[in-house]
Structure formats: structure tokens, C-alpha cells
Amino acid sequence: MAKVSREKFKVYEGVFDNMTLETLSLIKQRKYFDELKNPIKTGKEGDVYLAKKGDEFRAIKIYRVTSANFKKISQYINRDFRFRNVKGNLRKAILAWVQKEYRNLSICHKVGMNVPYPYRQYNNVIVMDYIDGPMLKDISIENPSKFFDYLLEQIYIMKNEAKLVHGDLSEFNILVKDQIPYIIDLGQAMTIKNEEDFRDYYDLYERDIKNIVVYFNKIYKLDISEKEVFEFLNK
Ligand SMILES: Nc1ncnc2c1ncn2[C@@H]1O[C@H](COP(=O)(O)OP(=O)(O)O)[C@@H](O)[C@H]1O
Ligand SMILES: [Mg+2]
What we know:
42% of the residues lie in helices and 20% in strands. It has a 5-stranded antiparallel sheet, sandwiched between helices. Strands 6-9 form a two-stranded antiparallel ribbon. The relative contact order is 0.11. It starts with a helix and ends with a helix. The protein has 2 domains: 7-129, Phosphorylase Kinase, domain 1 (2-Layer Sandwich); 136-233, Orthogonal Bundle (Transferase(Phosphotransferase), domain 1), CATH 1.10.510. The protein is α+β, with helices and mostly antiparallel strands. Bound molecules: adenosine-5'-diphosphate (ADP) and magnesium ion. Residues 40-41, 43, 45, 48, 59, 61, 116, 128-131, 135, 172-173, 175, 184-185 line the site of adenosine-5'-diphosphate.
């Protein structure tokens, strides 16, 4: 890694470990972004930063490679057939997890879902489109029933075309821009390769759907029937 490029990230030393600093400078060299700005959100497993690329904004999700949250990650990793051979050290498991989030985003984007476009994943870093809007939990939706239908359509495509179960769907992982939902945070999403997988992940799927039905019924006083929603999705 060129010393010169490392210099530019000097202010972040102490914030990021060496691997992350080098990864960021590599991605920058390859022109996926010009400038790293402020953190949008810092969390246990990692941080999301705002970045500038020309006139556009991008979001850069940076996973901590020394996370104490290994238990959750390894649980999900072992349940996904694509990553069943990832055993052993924490760093490897986290890198597999980040790769999984990137691939899941790519699959969802390819089938036409509203997800941030993922430009590039390298090591523990994902560069994606910045969605300029709040989390569902922080906004009042103008037409909740229309919004819910749109969201349901997204979940339908996710299940039947992307063949993924999100696994952590809630008002925290849905961003809203122009009254349209964008589903994010796909690290834990599981691939449904066949009926058997779907049965295995049914608990996650059921929890996802219940979360959003309960949310809309409670916050917007809607009267959505869980049963009808499941019937629609399984069509
Ligand atoms: N592509 C994006 N555009 C705009 N904001 C984002 C984007 N991705 C993540 N965020 C912000 O960062 C927060 C955390 O991202 P998320 O992927 O949910 O990670 P985690 O919940 O695992 O920390 C989101 O709630 C959202 O506020
Ligand atoms: Mg999240």
C-alpha cells in the first residue's frame, strides 16, 4: 500500500484498524469514492459513513473486524449453505459475512428491488448508493396502506425472485425516500435454494413479516391480517 494514500486517512487512525485503513485507501484509489465524510451511524458491528463521489453521495459500510458480536454472525453463517465451510477464526467469519451482505444486495438489485446499489465490496467494506431518507421508524408515512402494499411487493420479489429471507426486517432496516421503501442491512439474509431451506428459515421469515404487520397495525392503526399477508406472499 502506497504510503501517500495512507496519509489521507490519517485522521481516521485510531478509529479504524490497519486493515480497514488500507482497504479504504485501496477502494478510494480505484475511484469508488473521492472523500470520506461523517459517520451516518455507528454501531456494535460496524459503522456507516457518508462519502462523496463527484456530485453524488455514497454510503460506506465498514464492519469491525474485532467485533465482539461473533456469536450472532456465526449462527447465521452456519445456517447459510453458501458459507457452511467457513469455520475457524473471527476475521474470516466477518469477511464472509460482509461478502454475503454484498452478494445479497447485488441479487436484490438485479431482480429490481429497491435496495442501495452495491458498487464494490472489499475486505470488511461495502460501498453502496446513499439513500437520502430516514428510517421507517423515524418518519410518518403519508399513505400507510399504500406504502405497506409497496413494501409487501418488495418482500414478494425478495422471496420469490431473489430467493432470500431477510432475517432482520423491521422499521430499523427500511429507509424511506420519497415515500418509497428501501430495504437495507442484508448481512444476515438467507438464501432459499429449495423448499427444505425455506422450511429451515421459516422462523426468520415469519418473524420478518410479523414485525412489519405489527408495526403498521400499531403505529398507523391499520387492520392488516397476517394470514392474508402470508397467503399473498406464498402465491
Ligand atoms: N445505503 C445507505 N444509505 C443511507 N443510509 C444508510 C445506508 N446504509 C445504512 N444506512 C444508515 O446506517 C444505519 C445502519 O445500517 P445497517 O445496514 O442497518 O447496519 P446495522 O444495523 O447492522 O448497523 C441505517 O439504519 C441507516 O440509517
Ligand atoms: Mg440495521
